[in-house]
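Same chain as my last thread, 226 residues:
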Amino acid sequence: MLEAFGLLPEDEHDRELAENVHPGNWVNPSPSERYNIVVLGAGTAGLITAIVSASLGAKVALVEKHLMGGDCLNVGCVPSKGIIRAARAWADLQRAAEFGIGVPPGVTCDFGAVMSRMRRLRARISSNDSAQRYAKLGVDVFLGHGRFANQETIHVEGGAGEVRAAGRHGHTGGTGQHVRVHARQPNRGSGRQRVSQCRRDSESHRPHARRHSCRRLSPSRSRSAP
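reply #2:
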């Protein structure tokens, strides 16, 4: 299971991490009829959105198919800072003589121990982003792949069924760089009408009307307008 999430090697620290942010025995709750907000992705943005909304009394569903905590906890902020701290300690050791500190020859850096420390710290912090903690705080946590079935319904694969938001604007995506926005196409007719009006005003030598109509265009079109 841990290998599927990219957690290698499978040690006690990674097992603790997985138990917090994607427990193997997790049972998704029975979906409520409606939610005020459905959050796709339990990364930093998704977790904050869910917990703040729930604290304000909203009915919230949180959907995550991978590891809660997102990139920040699992592969980004937390792991990188642990490794950077070890690198800084090693760099300081190389300059110890400048500060009057004698270091015996033959001192080495054990990178395996550095990574083990990182995993230990990550596992300890992971309880803050755990599925159990968010469930206790009133968030319905669904572990599985979420996809839009329609404008008001998100289907969660893995036996969770369908999760419905209270309205068309009740969804938020916290999936990092993989977010896709489902929205209706804008009404482009009004934009074309303003372009035509701008050109007509220019041709008729009405400078005040031209400035007024062109002001509503995008910067790129304003520059190209006659």
